[in-house]
Amino acid sequence: MDRPTREQAEAAVRTLLAYVGDDPDREGLIDTPKRFVKAYDDWFAGYGQDPDEVLSTTFEEVEGYDDLVLLKDIRIESHCEHHVAPILGVAHVAYLPDHRVVGLSKLARLVDVYAKRLQSQEILNEQIARTLDRVLKPRGVAVVIDAQHQCISTRGTHKDQVSCVTRTFLGEFKTNARLEERFFRLIS
Ligand SMILES: Nc1nc2c(ncn2[C@@H]2O[C@H](COP(=O)(O)OP(=O)(O)OP(=O)(O)O)[C@@H](O)[C@H]2O)c(=O)[nH]1
Ligand SMILES: [Zn+2]
Asked: Looking at the keywords, is Transferase present (predicted)?
């Protein structure tokens, strides 16, 4: 499908506003299609970003450091692909370096690139872990996401306080139970 123009996207928002029963021409709503599309540019900025590029700068001067590197409590702001409803939570991303490390902020940027696209939490978890594994080629990767889905809390079943936990363990995190245990101790 050809990508619609901005004007077409704004017209679609007008249709939605009329669909819910409001008047898209009233003062309070007249600029809403513009704002809505601008907000989408922000929430879905990940489509215009290359996850591999985010991890392209690495450092090899680590003085022999070979233990795990963990960035925990990275805020997740995403949207589910089923309802386009917000998913809010945290991600914990760890890897076991093999002679090179990546800038810490890049782990958070990688999370953002995929979070700012539409997907399920399981896919988001896998995408972050697999990209880190493919590009950095570390000895192991662990990613855990703990998030709340507004499609469960504010509609449908209306279950607030429910959170979804997903995890992907690759390499030594998968084969070494003690490492997995240490990872969980560090994030708990
Ligand atoms: N596995 C998975 N499911 C998700 C995620 N986000 C939303 N969902 C679920 O996607 C499902 C879609 O189910 P459908 O029956 O097609 O849609 P629905 O009628 O809106 O479902 P209800 O939410 O039960 O009202 C729901 O069960 C959601 O809870 C996610 O990240 N992972
Ligand atoms: Zn949903």
From this structure: no
Q: Spell out the domains of the chain, with CATH numbers in brackets.
A: 6-43 (1.10.286.10), 57-187 (3.30.1130.10)
Annotated binding residue 151? yes
Enumerate residue ranges in the chain where pLDDT < 50: none
Residue closest by Cα to atom 13 of ligand 1: 82
Alpha carbon distance 85, 166 (integer Å): 18
Continuous H helices in 26-176? 32-43, 51-54, 104-115, 121-136, 150-153, 172-175
Q: What are phi and psi of 77, to 5 degrees?
A: -125, 105
Could you give the CA distance from residue 167 to residue 92 in angstroms, rounded to a whole number? 9
Count each helix (H run) and each strand (E run) in the chain, helices first: 8, 7
Q: Is 121 a catalytic residue?
A: yes
Q: Is 156 in the pocket of ligand 1 (CB under 6 A)?
A: yes
Cα(159) to ligand 1 centroid in Å equals: 13
